[in-house]
Amino acid sequence: MPRHYNIPVFLPELACPHRCVFCNQSSISSTYKIPSVAEVTAIIEKHFNSFKASEKHVELAFFGGNFTGLPQQMQLEYLNHVQPWLKSGQLQGIRLSTRPDYISSAQIAWLKDFGVTHIELGAQSTDNEVLQKSGRGHKRDAIENAATIINNAGLVLGLQMMLGLPGDSPEKAVATAKDIISFGAKETRIYPCLVVQDTALERLFLSGKYQPLSIQVAAEQAASLYVIFENAGIKVLRIGLHTSDDLNGSALIAGPYHPNFAEMVFGKIWLSAFETYDQWPESETIVVKTAASQLNHAVGFEASNKNRLLKRFKSVKFMPDSSLFGRQFIVQKL
C-alpha cells in the first residue's frame, strides 16, 4: 500500500475576513510571510527529496488561511504553478483548507478542474452560541451548506473541530462530532482551544472571563470524540496542534498544549477499555498482550495506564501479540 505524504504550504491569515477570538496563526504555524510561487517550488522539491517510500501518494496541502477567499487570480497563480507535478504524476491531488462561508458550487467546480481533491473546512463547532462567542462570523447552516456542495462535487470533505471554545461544553462537542458525521465528512481533526498571545481570547483569559480546559480534561474529551469518529468510519487526521517553537515558547499563554497530546489521548482510550474490562484474573502478576502497534498506547503516556494497573496488581507486563488487531487485548496470569 502506498505511503501517504502531505506537502504543507501555509498561508497564514490570508484572506480571512474575521479574526476569531483564538486566532493568531503566525504563532500557531510559525509562518510569518506568504510564500511566493517560487517558494512553493522550493517547498515541494525539499519535501520530495525527504520522502523515503518508493510507493507513495503525495498531496499538496494549502493550509492556514482562507484559500477560497483569495482573489481568484491569486488562487489561479498557485494552482497553475503546481500543474506540472500533477501532470507528471508526482502529485496525486491538492488539499486545501478554507472557511465554510466561502464555498460556492461554481468555485468548487473549477477547483476540481485544477486537481483539488480534498477540502477541509474549519468548522470548529456547529453550535451557534459557540460560533458567535468565538467570532467565527457564520452560523451552523453555513457549515452544512458548504458540506453539501463539496460532497455533491465528489470531493473528499474534512471538517475540523475545536474543544473548549467560549460557550462550549462536553455535550456541545459531542453534538458537533455527530454533525460532522451527518454532514458527510470523511476526515476530521480535533484541536483543543489554546490561549495564544495577541488574541481576543488572551484578553478574555487575563480578565477572568475565559478558562481553558486542563490538559487532562482536553485529552479525555478528545478520546471520547476519537472513538465516536472511529466507530462512524471517519478518519481522524490529527489530534492537537503541530508542535512549534512559538507554542513551546512565549506565544502560548495558557491552555491544553503538549507536544505529545495525541499520545495522551490514545492512552486515555486504552484506560477507558481497561476500566470497563471485567475479566481481570485473580492473580498478583499479569501480562497484557496487545497488537505491536498499540503497545505503547496501552501502556499509556509516561506509563500512566501501567501505573494505574500496578495499584491493583503487584506486577504488570505488556507484550506484543501478532494475532491481535486494533485495540484487542488479552490478559493472562504470569
Largest sheet properties? 7 strands, parallel
Shape: globular
Which stretches of 5+ consecutive residues score pLDDT under 50?
27-31
Mean pLDDT: 92
Please, how many domains? 2
Give the termini separation: 38 Å
Biggest β-sheet: strands ordered side by side in the sheet = 1-2-3-4-5-6-8
The CATH topology of the largest domain is: TIM Barrel
Element-level helix/strand string: EHHEHHEHEHHEHEEHHEEHEHHEE
- Percentage of residues in DSSP E strands: 15-25%
Assign a percent range to the helix content.
Answer: 25-40%
Number of strands: 12
State the secondary-structure class: alpha/beta
Q: What is the gyration radius calculated from CA atoms?
A: 22 Å
Q: How many separate helices?
A: 13
CATH superfamily of the largest domain: Aldolase class I
- State the CATH architecture of the largest domain: Alpha-Beta Barrel
Give an overview of the whole structure.
There is one protein chain. The protein has 334 residues and is an alpha/beta fold. The chain has 2 domains: 3-259, Alpha-Beta Barrel (TIM Barrel), CATH 3.20.20; 275-333, no CATH class. Helix content is 38%, strand content 22%. The protein is built from 13 helices and 12 strands. It has helices at 25-29, 37-50, 72-81, 83-88, 105-113, 128-133, 140-152, 170-182, 200-206, 215-231, 261-276, 295-299, 304-309, and strands at residues 3-10, 56-63, 93-98, 116-124, 156-163, 187-192, 195-196, 235-239, 252-254, 285-290, 315-320, 329-333. It has a 7-stranded parallel sheet with strand order 1-2-3-4-5-6-8. A 3-stranded mixed sheet has the order 11-10-12. Helix 8 runs parallel beside helix 10 and helix 10 (215-231) packs across helix 11 (261-276). The radius of gyration is 22 Å and the shape is globular. The chain starts with a strand and ends with a strand.
